[in-house]
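Q: Convert this sequence to C-alpha cells.
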Amino acid sequence: MTGDNTRRANQLHPVQFSRLPKRGVMLGLSLAQFVTLAIGLIAFTTAVYMGGGILFGLTSPIWLTSVVLAFLPVGGRKLIEWVPIAVRWVWRSVGGQLRFRADLVTPRPAGTLALPGDAAALREWIDPETGAAMIQDPHAQTLTAVVGITHPAFVLLDSGEQERRVAGWGRVLATVCRSGRIARVQISERTVPSSGSGLAEWWARHGVNDNSWPAVTYQELIERAGPAGERHATTISLALDVRAAARQIRAAGGGMKGAADVLRQEMTTFTAALRAADLMPTGWLTPGEVAVALRSAYDPAAAPALERHGDIGHSLATAGPVAVAESWDRLHTDSAHHAVLWIAEWPRSQVFPGFLSPLLLTSGIQRTFTLICTPVRADVAARDIRRKKVGLLSDAAQRAKIGQIEDAARTAEYNDVVQQESDLTAGHGVLRYTGLVAVSAPKIDELDAAIAAIEQAAVQAACETRRLVGQQAQAFAAAALPLCRPI
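A:
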C-alpha cells in the first residue's frame, strides 16, 4: 500500500442521511389532505352547478373547513393530521386508559410482565441454555433478547480507528439485514444514577488502604461522590420476527422452544459480529437484569438501591410501575416525570460519525437515547425505491404541466432515492431508523429545563427534535424500555 493509499484509509469519511419523504399522493398533498380537499371541492362544485346563491352560502362551511384543515399548519403539522391523534386521545381519555394503578392484591398470570398499556401482554421466557430472558410480544409476533455492550470512548480514538469501527458497525447491520428473520434492532444508551459501587470496587482492587491521610481522604471522596454521579449503560435488543422465521421454528420443534432455538442462533451470529466490530458484549441479560432495567426506567430513584443490593427487584413479575398518569405531553410514573422527543430530522448536510456527541455526552440529565433500526427485505426495498422514483418523476411532470418549477428540496429527495438504489444494487442492506430521546426528572420544572438542554444539544448535533404529544405512554415504552417496542 502506498503512502497516499494509507492516508486515504485512515481518513474519516463524512456521511449523509436521507431526508424524510415529503411526497404525497398528488402535487405534494398527503392522502388525508387530498381526501379533505376532495370533499370540499365536491361541495363547492355541487353548489355552483345547482344554481349558487343561497346553496353556495349553505355549503360554504364545508369547503372552507376543508381548506383550513388541509392547509393550516399547527405545531409543524397540517390541521387534518392532528385529527387521528386527537380522536385517539379522546377515546383513551373516555375509556380511562390514561391512568394505571398496579393491582396489589390480584396476582398476575404466570410469565406475564407487570407493565401498563399494550405492553401488559408481554410474556417472559427463560432460555434454558443461555439463561437469557426472552420477551415475547404476542401481538407483534416477536421474541426479543437484550445484550449489554461495553466500548471505548469513540470520540477519543484517532480518525483511522474511528473509520475502522464505523466500517465494523456497518458489517454488523449488514448481518442483520441478510438474516431476513430480524424484525427490529434497538440500540439504547442511557444515563443512570450511579450507586458508587463501581468506584468502591475499583478502590478495593487497586487502592492501598493503609489508614494514611491520603487514603482516608480518598475513601471519603469516593463515598460522597459515588451516589451523586451517573454512568452510561448501553444495550442492544434483538427482536426475532416469528412470522418470517415460521419455517425454521417448525423445523426446530415449533412453539416457544423452537422460536427460542432460532433466536439463539441469531444471538450467536450477532455476538460474533459485535466482537468483530470491537464491541464487547457483557452477556445476554438475565430475567433479573431485565427487571432492574424496567424498574429503573419507571422508578429512577430506586435505581441506585437496586444496583447496590443485587437480590432486590430481580423479579419480572413486579418490575413494572405502581402508578402511571399520562398527560398530553408528558408522563408521570412512580418517582419521576418523563417526556419523549422524536428526532424528526437527521443532519441534512454531510457529518462525521461522531456527530451525536453533543447529545450523548450531556451530563447531569437523566435520559435514554434510543435508535430503532428496522431491516427491510431487499425485494421490498427495491419495490419501495421503484415506487418512490415513479412517484417523484410523475409529480415533476405534473408540476411542469401547470408551470411550477422544481425546488431544491424535491431535487435532493430524488437524489436520495437514487443513492438508496445505488447502495441496494451494491449489496448493502436497507434499514429504517427511528430516533427517540426519553428525558426524566423528579419535578416538572426540572423536566422542562432538561428538555431545553437536550433540544439545544440536538441542535449542536444538527438534528431536529419534536416533543411527541398524545402518545407519551406508548413512546416512553418504545424509548426507555429495551424491549424493541414499535411506535
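The mean pLDDT is 84.
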